[in-house]
Each structure stands twice: as structure tokens, then as C-alpha cells.
Amino acid sequence: MKDFTKNKKYQAALSTGKKLFWKYGLKRVSIEEICKEASVSKMTFYKYFPNKIELAKSILKDIMEQAMGQFEELISSELSFEQKVEQMMHMKMEGTKELSAEFLNDIYANPDNGLLAFMQKYSEQSASIFAEFLKQAQQNDEIRQDVSIDFILYQMNLMTQTVNDKTLLARYDSPGELIMENMRYLFYGMMPQK
């Protein structure tokens, strides 16, 4: 398979697709709109992507792989556990702040398009790394000994499901704000931080 990643037209389609998908979701954006805004012909678009789902997968793959690299780098850093958690929350916020509720809904409400399964593969990989991080923190007495790591991971999984709750999501300016609320609640509870 040919590597197009350095090609300017490929990159234009990728960045334009991301911008439009993040703003309007997948369903509301047409290939014609992407091509027009990216100054790429439809023939060129189809040279790189068979459809907009594959474009979305390419966008998500780039984002997920970059995030995984940053995540692994952070975990192996010399920062304290609390500093690492704060950095993780910041990374999560940065990664989701421009994400539209429509795009998230397109992923979760339409499992047949393959994007949910595609994202779950990366989620499982990061969950495995995160579980090891938590086990190490527990061994170092940085988190409570009486809390099950599986319970923490289960709660984190529930957090991602809240982004699908349209009533709850409507109370926030963006999905990123809801995700951050979830993260803060998981790590700090409802009591004031000391």
C-alpha cells in the first residue's frame, strides 16, 4: 500500500475533514464539501479514501496514535502521580475541546459504520496501559489500597457513556467539559481538594 501521508492534497483532505467533522459531525458533512474546502478534486479524494468513513478512521488513527505516544511518555515521566493525573486530564480536555456532540453521536449511535469498533481498539490499548499505571500507583500508596483497579476502569468506561446522554450533554458547552467533569469527579470526588 502506498504511503500518502506526506502528500499535500492528502493532508488537506485530512485536516479539512477533521475541521468539518469536529464542527458538524459525520452525517452532515458531504465529500463534496470536504473537497471544495480542501481544494481537492473528488477524483483525488477517492484516490486516498474510498469514502468519508475511511477519512474519519484516518483522522482518528492519527489522533489516537499521537495521544497514545503522549500518554506513554507522561506515564514514564518523573512527575508525581497527582501531576500525571492532572496532565492526563489536560490532555483529555485538549483532545476533545473542539469535538462536536454530533460527531460523537455519529460514532456511538451508528456502530455499523465501524468507527466505534475502531476507537474501542485504541481504548482497550490505553486502558491496559492505564491499569498498569494505577497498579503501580497503588503499590506506591499514591491511591487507596482498598479500591479495585477494575472498579476504577469500570467507572472510567461509564464516564464515556455519559457523553451519549443528550440531556446531560446539553448542560455543558462541549463534550470536552463533560469529560473533564467526569475525570475530576472520578479522581477527586465531590469533596473539596485539600
UniProtKB/TrEMBL annotation:
Give TM segment ranges: none
Q: Where is the HTH tetR-type domain?
A: 7-67
Q: Which UniProt keywords apply?
A: DNA-binding
**What Gene3D superfamilies has UniProt attached to this entry?**
Tetracycline Repressor, domain 2 (1.10.357.10)
- DNA-binding region, as residue ranges, is located at 30-49
Reply yes or no: does the keyword DNA-binding apply.
yes
Superkingdom of the source species? Bacteria
Give the matching InterPro entries: Homeodomain-like_sf, HTH-type_Tx_Regulator, HTH_TetR, Tet_transcr_reg_TetR-rel_C_sf
Would the keyword DNA-binding turn up in this protein's UniProt record? yes
- Which PANTHER family is this protein grouped with? ACREF/ENVCD OPERON REPRESSOR-RELATED, ACREF_ENVCD OPERON REPRESSOR-RELATED
Name of the featured protein: TetR/AcrR family transcriptional regulator
What is the native source organism of this protein? Answer: Carboxylicivirga mesophila
Organism classification: Bacteria, Pseudomonadati, Bacteroidota, Bacteroidia, Marinilabiliales
